[in-house]
Design a protein that fits this description.
The protein is an alpha+beta fold and 89 residues long. The protein folds into 2 domains: 1-43, no CATH class; 45-89. The protein is built from 3 helices and 2 strands. A two-stranded antiparallel ribbon has the order 1-2. Helix 2 packs across helix 3 (69-88). The longest helix is centred in the last third of the chain and has 20 residues, at 69-88. It is elongated and about 50 Å long. The two termini are 20 Å apart.
């Protein structure tokens, strides 16, 4: 379940030095140590291989501007389907 996923990020002194070098204000710098986050749902992605009929892939590719964005379109369409199913219950 997505809500159970936790991301751990370690912030080191080297990270802070790089952030300072990149021009990040001292007041915006995090503290060092390991931080635990529950990321927003839209950040988490699972890479999967899925077999789709060629005409379905072509349909989604024809609706988008770049070859990469058709995958986003498929994801959005599936999300709407799931949300519609949930609201119908």
């Amino acid at each position: 379940m997505i809500s159970d996923r936790i991301i751990e990020v370690e912030v080191t002194e080297e990270d802070l030095a790089q952030m300072r070098e990149d021009g990040i204000a001292e007041t915006d710098l995090p503290k060092t140590g390991v931080k635990r986050y529950r990321p927003a749902r839209h950040i988490l992605k699972d890479k999967v291989a899925i077999l789709l009929d060629a005409d379905i892939v072509e349909h989604f590719k024809s609706r988008t501007e770049t070859d990469e964005s058709y995958q986003i379109n498929i994801n959005q369409t599936l999300r709407r389907l799931i949300e519609n199913e949930k609201s119908a219950k």
